Amino acid sequence: MAQFRLQGSKVLAVDLAGDTVKARNGSMVAYTGQMGFKKLSGGGDGLRGMVTRRLTGERMEVMEVKGQGTCFFADQATEINLVRLNGETLFVESDNLLCTEATLRTGTSFTGLNGMASGNGLFTTKVEGQGWAAVTSRGPAVILRVAQGLPLRVDPGAYVAHTGNLNRALKSGAGWTTLIGEGGGEAMQVEFTGEGLVYVQPSERLTFGGDA
Amino acid sequence: MSYPPQPNNPYGQQPPPYPPQAPPPGYSQQQYQQSYQATQVGMPAPQLPPPGGQFGAPLLQAPGGEGPQVWDPHSLPADDNVNPYCFSVDLNGAYYLQKGKMIAYYGEMRFSGIGRGVLDRVLEQNFNSPLHASDWVVAEGRGKLLLADRAYDLNSYDLEDGNLTVRSGNLLAFEPSLRLKQSIIPGFLTLIGTGKFVAASNGPVHFVEPPIRVDPQALVGWADCPAPCHHYDHSYLHGVLGGIRHLTGIGGASGEEHQYEFIGAGQVLMQSSEALMAERSVGVVGEQSGVPHQQPAQAVPGLGNLGNLGDLGRRFGL
Which of A136, A159, B159, B257 could covalently link to A78 via disulfide, CB atoms 3.0 to 4.6 Å apart? Predict the structure, then answer.
């Protein structure tokens, strides 16, 4: 049973006792003990993953880490958020998934056209099962609860991940003024309704609709 | 007493009077430090998180203790930092913000460009920079609005009948009870009046008191001081040897020959790095005699050239 813990806020330490975790390729920064690192094809989902990830463009380079000791992971000094899954599903941008326990299954999920318009791609990565997952965010993620009657709108560039029974819908605030460059600057928003949690980073990655 | 004269607040919304505290002019340093420390240790856990596991969401219990805090519209702070990098505005009326700094919101809001619509006339009173400053938008409505900027540190500042000048790229949002004007220093904006505004800095902000000389790239803004002047340390470029050095570049320049010098009473705001935020256009000042105008953006002075010495080369007859 791999133990996930934070070493500071930007380094993930995983204690391994002969078991395995899946981590983003090249994210290991240090380790103690004996470790083996093996590149996995197709985002760790084998042949099916190779096909679907190639088709969907939701690329994920994943390695399998196995051994005895403690392995440290980090990615460009981004903040790390630990998420414990007990049978729920975590939807996360593949760029933000750092490390998952071997007991978790990863896959791709169709997000619909809203993903394309927001520049995040049509698909997102799905993590499900029982165990720990580590999600990176540029700046500590703010976790926002969505409940009935409390919809949340998020800038697509700041969206990191979400869990729970949430519906994503793209909302456009663009009007004719956007076309002449006098728009509100927030032309694209993703609306989450339902019940669940949304992880938002205090930073915006460059998105297609971000400057409109 | 109150200069400049205050127009009536068009929104009928007065910011809560902030208890003026000892240090910087009304800056909520205490709150800021609290929230800063809370997240420095990784996951913020200032309060007990709501019970996890509901709504089919995962339990957010870290193995070693409390999990991260989950926010909802009721627990989000009103006009305060959520963490050092994210600011929550309790919107009830209107707020000015820079384009693209909204990361999420609850409630009903509309974002519209400045200088159009029914608010046009009241805006003119507050937004005293050229109205075509297309980098600014107005958020109208009610709800909780989260602001962030590239994971830079955000601070809110309360002005009470005061003035503060800030680099245009660092200003994120401000209450409509403040009036925004262009500073006489190109690239800076001055806020006058009473109200709250949010500014970003790369690394925490430090307050220093004049007399002081600061690096141009580390300067975020200043309050109450008279406008700064330039200061050049070029003495080692004097004389024959210095002239040779200047001409040939042998020996190089330290890159710190140019500073801003502040004198008088007030506060100077500095950031902890020399990373600049992108300049935001604030419109162009009409060219008139006697009006300093904005020069085209210059590259950040790098090593290897003597560019940041400005026109000093003239002293050597170049």
Answer: A136
First to last CA, chain A: 47
Q: Quick one: pLDDT band at residue B313, thresholds 50, 70, 90?
A: very low
Nearest to B251 by CA among B304, B295, B178, B198: B304
Please report the residues numbered 34 through 73 in chain A whose beta carbons come closer than 8 angstroms to any beta carbon of chain B. none
Domain spans of chain B, in order of start: 71-201, 205-276+305-318
What superfamily does domain B71-201 belong to in CATH? Mitochondrial biogenesis AIM24 (3.60.160.10)
Q: Are strands B229-232 and B178-182 parallel, antiparallel or unpaired?
A: unpaired
State the CATH number of the domain containing residue A151: 3.60.160.10
Using a CB–CB cutoff of 8 Å, tell me whether A167 touches chain B: no
User: DSSP 3-state helix, strand, coil percentages of chain B (rounded to 5)?
Assistant: 15, 35, 50
Cβ-nearest to A82 among B39, B62, B154: B62
Q: What is the pLDDT, as a whole number, of residue A120? A: 54
- The beta-strand segments (E) located in B227-274 are 229-232, 258-262, 267-270
Interface confidence (ipTM) of the complex = 0.81
Test mutation, A132, A152, A208, chain B, max B CBs within 10 A: A152
| Chain A residues closer than 8 Å to B91 by CB | none
**CA dihedral over B252, B254, B257, B260, signed as positive or negative:** positive
- Is A207 domain-assigned? no
* Interface residue of A153, A168, A178 to substitute, partner B, most B CBs within 10 Å: A153
Residue A114 covered by a domain: yes
Q: Give domain status of residue A206, yes or no.
A: no
Residue type, B62: A
- Taking only residues 1 to 40 of chain B, the set having a beta carbon closer than 8 angstroms to any beta carbon of chain A reads 39-40
Q: How far does B264 lie from chain A, in Å, by closest CA?
A: 37
Stronger pLDDT, B232 or B293, i.e. the higher one: B232
State whether residue A86 sits within 8 Å of chain B by CB: yes
Degrees, nearest 5: CA angle B9-B10-B16: 45
State the total domains in chain A: 1
Question: Where in the sequence is the domain holding A92, given as residue range(s)?
Answer: 3-200
Would you write out chain A's pLDDT as a tens digit for each of its 212 residues?
788 998 888 999 999 999 899 998 889 999 999 999 888 776 656 666 666 666 666 667 788 899 999 999 999 889 999 988 988 899 988 888 899 998 888 887 776 655 544 455 557 788 999 999 999 998 889 999 999 888 999 888 888 999 988 888 877 765 555 444 445 556 678 889 999 999 999 988 765 444 43
